[in-house]
Amino acid sequence: MSLFNIIGLTLFLGVLGTSNINVSHELIHKPNSIDHLIGMLTMSKNLYMHFEIQHIRIHHKHVATPNDPSTAKLG
Q1: Cα separation of 24 and 51, whole Å?
Q2: What is this structure's pTM?
Q3: How far apart are CA 69 and CA 72, in angstroms?
Q4: Quick count: other Cβ atoms within 10 Å of Cβ 21?
Q5: pLDDT tens digit string along 48-60?
């Protein structure tokens, strides 16, 4: 592969991975179990299956408190 192709492939895969996380995030929030499963399978392509546990079960429970690892600390 040429350098041009390697750069293009790298950028394409990076954008694809980012959009997968956004779509998966929304699907994981759906109450429909099929949508939730599709969201989890989509996250598996990014090796980020633990997102559901961290986001739904920890972040949503402790949002904007010191117990939330996703919220920036004051100061």
Answers
A1: 10
A2: 0.62
A3: 8
A4: 14
A5: 888 888 888 888 8
